[in-house]
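User: Could you go from structure to sequence for me? I need the amino acid at each position, not a summary. Structure tokens:
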């Protein structure tokens, strides 16, 4: 049951991102929706929807990998040192 809810939570931002791509494509080919006042506004709204959906899914995957210790890049691992800039890091 919990996995189905998680899939639905990931499915909704995916749909939003896909609709954002569709809005941008339609703005480039001058297919205008009457809810927007200008084609440029339609493109910007589509871009924001695409970036929001992509950021949500990317953040979800990053947090899941971080929780399972699959993030190996030292840039993403928090260090406990207060002065983390050593001569070796520079």
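Assistant: Here is the amino acid at each position, in order:
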């Amino acid at each position: 049951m919990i996995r189905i809810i998680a899939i639905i939570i990931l499915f909704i931002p995916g749909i939003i991102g896909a609709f954002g791509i569709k809005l941008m494509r339609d703005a480039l080919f001058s297919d205008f929706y009457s809810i927007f006042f200008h084609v440029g506004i339609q493109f910007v709204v589509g871009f924001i929807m695409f970036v929001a959906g992509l950021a949500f899914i990317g953040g979800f995957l990053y947090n899941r990998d971080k929780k399972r210790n699959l993030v190996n890049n030292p840039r993403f691992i928090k260090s406990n040192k207060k002065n983390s800039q050593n001569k070796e890091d520079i």
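One structural detail worth keeping in mind: Residues 2-67 form one domain.
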